[in-house]
Amino acid sequence: MKQAGNQTNQKLRIIPLGGLGEIGMNCLVIEYGQDLVLIDCGVQFPDSHWPGMDILVPDFDYVRQKLSNLRAVIVTHGHDDHIGAIPYLLKEKQLDIYATPFPTGLISQKLTEHSDLNEVRFHKIENRKKFKVGPFTFDPIPVQHSIIEALAFAIETPVGTLIHSGDFKHDAHETSQGMIGFEPFEEWGKKGVALLLSDSTNAERPGHTLSEMEIKQSFEQILKRQKSRMIIALFASNIKRVEKLLQLAHEQGKKVAFGGRSMHSYTKLAFEQNSLSIPPETLVLLEHIGQYPDDKVIVLVTGSQAEPQSALLRISEGIHKDFQIRPGDLVVMSSRFIPGNERAITKMIDQLYRAGAEVLYESIHQVHVSGHGQQEELLMMLKATRPKYFIPIHGAYRHLSKHAGLAKESGVQPENIKVIEDGQIVELSKDGLEIGERLELNRGVVVGTSFVEGSPDVFSQRSNLSKTGVVFAVFMRDSKSLKLIAPPSVYPYGLMYFRGENPEHVAQDAEDHLEDIYYDAMHSGELEETLRLEGRRFYKKRASHKPVFIPLVLDV
Ligand SMILES: [Zn+2]
Ligand SMILES: [Zn+2]
């Protein structure tokens, strides 16, 4: 017979499906008994290892096996690396989503781009108003970040309290978002925190993030000295920064126009939800800015990362329909260069200079601060919560590892600190925190708005194709005698030859060579494989790479 007391021996399982050991795609499973919840469900944008693929989403296999037990998705904030994959999970199952209004609005906008989704039920989160999902009680704690309505959670579970930091920083001078202190974390620290899971994005950076107030002062000076039109590139999701710029512009009697689809959609949503105040007679349409003197014109645009199709990239290429750079224009990049995007950004900056603009960016001027806390702030979180166990989250391995070092410094027992990566299950019970099995994860791959399937083999084939090119070779033969009825023909695609080579000569030589090979191997059981290997070998000598080689032997 089962005893009720068994319950306390149950283990809480924590399973990162993304965001640990990599940047982006944050998604964490918390499971106890028959119940599981997800904290965040984000995407990642693929690099050149994923040619032609649009977004990557977490591997939902583990969740898929337990779909009927999935109680809810709990959202910390509205950045895409926290909410972007929700529509893809909604293809599997109807969902209960707990979020504050701003991310709720952003998720709703995303859902309109899909047609094959299950029903969604939104539950509104309010700061510090506890809610219960299955065996878990969540206390939403507001934190500062580069988007409004960012939350951390204290999560009461049958085996103790967890703190999930979300993405956070501490900006003591920024009072516009209400909560500035760590009091709620200290409260929980006093009651006892079993496990802290905390944002590691900036764990390599010493000190404290600059205050957004310093950004405001920088911009105040830049605006005062403004002589020409000014274009400011920033993330549209950074509503508070947009609001500050609008306010500064208003104070100095200037006009602001928005450029870029997400600049319009994020600000519209925030305005409708009363989270963005727009001073009177400040906002104008981009196509009307010609009516104002140059030193009164400010354009806020997306594209600080030189994203394809973004407003600033199109402006830099001279193909934006409502705005062309003129000599003397000033462009301010109010965001950091995200690693991986530097080349595209510097190329864009060059184009802006070529068109006659001046460009200011972070390394020279204080026009951006990060939304993620640096070492001092991470230590504040550790000291406030005083956790027994610690797992660093949200970061590449080096960030997690640095953060673990800070935890040790703050007094967490070294054996109670676990640096884990995606797929590694950890189990928390009254007896302690243990490392469990490790899931093998394959990311979900999306093209357009649809999942596509591909094994690791297929992904490496695609990547090879893009590097080496491909050659088809057609062998037409008599089905009885097996003799070729015409010489073989090769069809190279995407090949590069050594300088001085004539591609037509190479093709002719390849056809002659393959004809010999054909007759040598025509009776062997491995004719096609032999042709394939010989074809590759031939092209290796005459072209830049061994191509993908596909022989087609046709019986006539
Ligand atoms: Zn974030
Ligand atoms: Zn994040």
What does this structure look like?
By secondary structure, the protein is α/β, with parallel strands linked by helices. The chain is 29% helix and 23% strand. It contains 15 helices and 25 strands. It has an 8-stranded mixed beta sheet with strand order 7-6-5-3-2-1-19-20. Strand 21 and strand 22 (450-452) form a beta hairpin. The longest helix has 19 residues, at 503-521. The radius of gyration is 29 Å and the shape is globular. Residues 1-6 have low confidence and may be disordered. It binds zinc ion (2 copies). One zinc ion binds next to loops. One zinc ion (ZN) is lined by residues 26, 79, 81-82, 167, 394.
Which SSEs are present, and which pair or pack?
Layout: E1 12-18, E2 27-32, E3 35-39, E4 55-57, H1 61-64, E5 70-74, H2 80-83, H3 86-90, E6 95-99, H4 101-111, E7 120-124, E8 131-133, E9 136-142, E10 151-157, E11 160-164, H5 183-191, E12 195-199, H6 212-224, E13 230-233, H7 239-251, E14 255-259, H8 261-272, E15 297-301, H9 311-316, E16 330-333, H10 342-354, E17 358-360, H11 375-385, E18 389-393, H12 397-410, E19 424-429, E20 432-438, E21 444-447, E22 450-452, H13 456-468, E23 470-477, E24 489-493, H14 503-521, H15 527-542, E25 548-555
Parallel strand pairs: 3-5, 5-6, 6-7, 11-12, 12-18, 13-15, 13-16, 14-15, 16-17, 23-25
Antiparallel strand pairs: 1-2, 1-19, 2-3, 4-21, 8-9, 9-10, 10-11, 19-20, 21-22, 23-24
The structure holds zinc ion (2 copies).
